[in-house]
Amino acid sequence: MCPLTRSMNLTTPALLFPAISLLLLAYTNRFIVLAQLIRHLHSQNQENLTDVVIRQIANLGLRITLIRRMQAMGVLSFLFCALSMFLIFVDMLRSAEYVFGASIFLLVISLIFSLYEILISTKAIEIELEDIQNHAKRQGSRLP
């Protein structure tokens, strides 16, 4: 490709740094909230593990695994981005482009894991709603 049509300099990969940093912060916050919820469920229901609690814990375990993968892909993306900046600095532009492309690919994988985790998170709410509906039926109540 002609150098006039595609130009990569230090600012190109540097543009991803704030986005990746914010994503990692959001992923960490999600992880912390889920860890607190798991600890709460465990302490509140240690003696009485109902089907609902067991299903919730399984759901949360899967979400924790996904968040760990999201974080790993985000960190690798960040590292590849930094490596591409170094390669630009030492004038290895072709290698820098490939490494930067890998960085973007890893970021996309991280976002796909994030989307999947969001879809699963709604399952936890569905489990709660199902339990509320079953409880209402047992008591003879009707929900709107």
Number of strands: 0
Structural class assignment: mainly alpha
Assembly state (oligomeric): single chain
Question: Looking at the structure, what is the overall shape?
Answer: elongated
N-to-C order of helices and strands: HHHH
Q: Major sheet, described briefly?
A: none
Mean pLDDT: 85
**Straight-line N-to-C gap:** 63 Å
Helix content: over 70%
Q: So how many helices?
A: 4
Give unreliable regions as ranges: 1-5
| Rg, Å, rounded | 22 Å
Q: Give the DSSP E fraction (strand runs of 2 or more residues).
A: under 5%
Report on this model:
With 144 residues, the chain is mostly helical. The chain has a domain at 23-35 and 52-136. It is built from four helices and no strands. The chain has helices at residues 11-14, 16-44, 51-89, 93-138. Helix 2 runs antiparallel to helix 3 (51-89). The protein is elongated. 22% of the residues are buried.
